[in-house]
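Appendix B, example 12.
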Amino acid sequence: QMQLVESGGGLVQAGDSLRLSCTSSGRTFGLVNGGWFRQAPGKDREFVAAIRWSGRETIYSESAKGRFAVSRENDRYTMYLQMNSLKPEDTAIYYCATDYKAYRALLSSTENDYDTWGQGTRVTVSS
């Protein structure tokens, strides 16, 4: 079993940067892939970024690519999402999640492939 807790959200202005953290209670965190998703008010949850268990491979949504960067420090049981050049459309609750199929050939952007989810952290970007 593993528990995830996101932090770092808040209210920022367009163009600002923010770094989200996802801390795991499980010491097997370094053996699973990680992902970030977000859900805006009235919309479905959507994929943002994913990272291989090793940290050596990442993928991003088109909206995140070039602006966001996912990373991890497995010795601290923590994953991060660095968000730069934030836009009002980035406003959402951001969730981290883990994918226990660590060796799947392709990192997953599908939420059903993720097993454990955090409670989310709210990001609001004003114009």
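The longest strand covers residues 92-99. The mean pLDDT is 97.
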